[in-house]
Design goal:
The structure holds 2 protein chains of 2 kinds. Chain A is mainly alpha-helical. Chain A folds into 2 domains: 1-48, no CATH class; 53-83. Chain A has helices spanning 16-22, 27-45, 54-70, 72-75. In chain B, strands 1-2 form a two-stranded antiparallel ribbon. The longest helix of chain B has 64 residues, at 71-134. In chain B, strand 1 (28-29) and strand 2 form a beta hairpin. By secondary structure, chain B is an all-alpha fold. Helix content of chain B is 79%, strand content 2%. Chain B has a domain at 29-68. Classes of the chains: A mainly alpha, B mainly alpha. The interface between A and B is medium-sized, with 25 and 23 residues. Chain A: Belongs to the ATPase F chain family. Chain A: One of its GO terms (biological process) is proton motive force-driven mitochondrial ATP synthesis. Chain A: The chain crosses the membrane at residues 54-72.
Chain lengths: 84, 228
Amino acid sequence: GPLSERPLLEVRLGELHTWISTCHVSPQGLLGAVQKAWSSYCAKYIHMRRGGPSGISMLLAGYCLLSYGWNYQHLKRHRWRKYH
Amino acid sequence: VLHTTRPLHTTQQSLAPVPPLPEKGGEVRHGLIPEEFFQFLYPKTGVTGPYMLGTGLLLYFLSKEIYVINHETVAAACILAVIIYGIKKFGADVAAFADKLNEEKMATALAMKNEAIQTLQKAIEEEKKEQWRVEGRNYLFDAKRNNIAMLLEANYRERLLMVYNEVKRRLDYQVAMQNLMRQKEQNHMIQWVEKSVVQSITPQQQKESIAKCILDLKALSKSAHAAV
């Protein structure tokens, strides 16, 4: 399909630059993109009849990773060894 | 505020009926990694590729201490163990319970829908029956017309009888009047005649007639004596 309307996962690495230039960078555009991403995640992993723990556990894992990343500079000070 | 000039349900997209939820959504392996990742690596590295990648990354993070082991690691390990034990043990039951709740909701909604459909169908049948009944309106009108004709006839005959009675009454009155007049005239005449006759009998004639009666009586008595 046309480049600007393809979802991000289907864009090849070489076309990433052009893809970024075609998306609408504005508060409404970003909000719309976030909304679309969230609704597609919900539709794929949460809104189903026989779902498991996967839908929420992936969100929690992502939250764990994000918070580890935000606190990395502080955690770096509690390393066990100085030289790796 | 509903703008009644706006056409409703003209486009294909409408909010009802809502499509049902899919049975299974995106596949996730081990509860954390989507299946697409494994499929993405399968052509190049086969089945064990993602696991090797995971192990390698883990060891790299640990050895370079990009991931630092501290008290939180122990806490996370304990929490994860408890969570996984809980899910493995009670997952099926909770899922069955949730499914049962859903089923009940669906059943009530479906029952309502079916009931509404039944009511409407019954209404349709009743309506059809009424329409069939309407076809017999000719008989109804005929019966009504007959009734009215009978009423009119009865009324007419009643009035005919009344007319007859009234006329007869008047005629009888006339007849009675005539009879009465005649009777009165007759009586009057008789009386007048009697009066004039009685008046015309002079005393002279009276004596003569009495003497004659006595003579007749004597003669009769004689003949009677003779007969006995």
